[in-house]
Amino acid sequence: xxxxxxxxxxxxxxxxxxxxxxxxxxxxxxxxxxxxxxxxxxxxxxxxxxxxxxxxxxxxxxxxxxxxxxxxxxxxxxxxxxxxxxxxxxxxxxxxxxxxxxxxxxxxxxxxxxxxxxxxxxxxxxxxxxx
Length: 131
Fold this sequence. Notes:
It is built from five helices and no strands.
């Protein structure tokens, strides 16, 4: 098999192939990344809390934005870590460390946004429920 045939094998030929690759990536992240499973469980809890507390449409938009951003950034972080590990041959390199730390920092920033969003939406409701 020449290199041109190999390129065609991995090229997205149609929408279904693209969807298959994307779903494989999502399921791989869930299966192999501990933090992704934590985000998935937290997301389910937030969705359940949104139903229980009957949040407004605008609040749903912010909750869903938060959930999808954290998951997307976690997938990107994992992809960056894998590429850096591959490029550095799993040997310590300061540039590799910086790249991985920055990708993790991006996840942290988005996670803080999600946490603040959740606090703004749910704290007043919990407060009213308790007092």
